[in-house]
Amino acid sequence: MAGGFVGSDGGKRAAQYEGRITKYFVLTVIVASMGGSLFGYDLGVSGGVTSMDDFLRDFFPKVLKRKQEHQNETDYCKYDNQLLTLFTSSLYFAALVSTFGASHLTRVKGRRASILFAATSFFLGAVVNAGAVNILMLIIGRILLGIGIGFGNQSVPLYLSEMAPAKHRGAVNQLFQFTTCFFIVVANIINYFTANIHPWGWRLSVGLAALPASLMFLGGLMVPETPNSLVEQGRLEEARTVLMKIRGTDNIEAEFADLKEASEAARAVKHPFRNLLQRKNRPQLIIGALGIPAFQQLTGNNSILFYAPVIFQSLGFGSGTALYSSIITSGMLAIAPFVSMVLVDRVGRRAMFIEAGIQMIIAMATVAGVLATKFGHGQMLPKADGIVLVIMTCLFCLAYGWSWGPLGWLVPSEIFPLETRSAGQSMVVCVNMLFTAAIAQCFLAALCHLKYGIFILFVGLIIIMTLFIIFLLPETKRVPIEEMHFLWESHPVWRKVVLTEQERLERGQKY
Q1: Where are the bilayer-spanning segments (predicted)?
Q2: I need a surface site. Which of 23, 25, 327, 469 has the fewest CB within 10 A?
């Protein structure tokens, strides 16, 4: 189980931190959180576009032919086409690779530089996709979008966590998830209306991705660099000025001293990725860089988001009804972050992970049960059962939306020390995008071959990840970001890893 708050030797300086929530701080983090709009808009728009007949006619006529042959039937394999799924997954493979470049830019030039680069690349990708006349142009556009998401997802969560005071860090970081979810809803609504604009409605859907990119670029020009990054770059006076401005007080010496000490340690590290492998960073590596970002995708939520209209049509829903149902489910995701913002710094990260895990298991198991007993190949799914599926999907999305969605970005962004923070966040994005791409590429084939068994598989994975949280994640709420290492030293599992036997003996820790 989780250990205590901090060890007895640390945390004294954190008690001296002062500050309040200023209007400047609020404006800054709201503007910066627009980085989530890139990821959200793409998640929402991709599935809707791939279900549009005009889009399929231009690029995937074989899929359209099969869809029309089974228009009013349930068919697990209706959209099983690897080239079609490559349209979705190519973006995430590009994001996976680009995040390593983002790590270098974020560390050397700052978080703002990565935010601006992300917006520019995403804008170009939107333009290319809107004008695409062949599959090659589609893939090139998706790659540019992916580069933008790789840089944005690497820098924005870091930016929000570093700007926020410890006691409000959870709620502030949730803004990234909120903008992500909000733009999923926006994209689904746009798809709902553009589906009736023939034959170019799909171009409008993908082209409007330029709008969140433009908002993010303008926001990146407005916001200041984080004090942590400014200190890391040796710009101490600028860092002091920004810190005083966002905290609303001149008495920032305790927090500033922690930033300088962390920066000195960071400058001593020449190879941050190699440093991640050191014994003292093993908990951050396993929990933050590997476990949480992988499990975030293995919940199955993004599969539902990618292909919600496709899934609902495969289960016999009409085209308009499928898009409408996807608006409802994505709307649940937009509501859920508000719950998380209110509770995350009160009840803590662990409790929200565990409760949501139980809710997601029940919802997904119910979906599997309905499909196993009522879903017949070539037959219409009964209306009552279709309603049950939509309700269970909404409950699943709500649970994900206040747990693995936002906390999957929050916890990794707050547990890495400054010297490995950029590298660590790159690993987070890399692993996240690797599993996102794999799920996007394989889900429709898995749905075709495993049928309702794919949802049983997700149930088993959610059970595993909930146990992972129970036994390995300490509670991080209200722990200052530069003093997170004390958690590992007092945790019943991780203290055996990060402390040598001699250090444990000196601290009187017995096993």
Answers
A1: 21-41, 83-102, 114-133, 139-160, 172-194, 200-223, 285-310, 322-344, 356-375, 387-411, 423-446, 452-473
A2: 23
Question: How many whole angstroms separate alpha carbon 167 and alpha carbon 170?
Answer: 8
Q: Which tens digits make up the pLDDT trace of 270-318?
A: 777 888 888 889 999 999 999 999 999 899 887 776 556 666 665 556 6
Take residue 185 and report the two structure tokens written for it: 């809803």
Residue-wise pLDDT for 41-73, tens only, equals 987 788 778 878 899 999 988 888 877 776 555
pLDDT at 113: 93
Q: What is the 3-state secondary structure (H, E, C) of 27-96?
A: HHHHHHHHHHHHHHHHHHHHHHHHCCHHHHHHHCHHHHHHHHHCCCCCCCCCCCCHHHHHHHHHHHHHHH
173 and 29 Cβ atoms separated by less than 8 Å = no
State whether residue 277 is helix, strand or coil.
coil
The model's pTM: 0.76
For 275, what's the count of Cα atoms within 13 Å in the CB-facing half-sphere? 17
What's the CA gap between 310 and 300, in Å, rounded? 15
Burial track 233-271 (b if 16+ CB lie within 10 A, e otherwise): bebeeebbebbbbbbeeeebeebbebbeebbeebeebee
Residue 209 to residue 198: CA distance in whole angstroms: 19
Q: How far apart are CA 78 and CA 67, in angstroms?
A: 6
238, 388 contact by CB (below 8 A): no
On whether the CB atoms of residues 214 and 38 are closer than 8 A, the answer is no
CA distance 385 to 371: 9
Per the prediction, the chain carries an average pLDDT of 84
Q: Which residue has the tokens 């649970």?
A: 399
Per-residue pLDDT, 390:
80
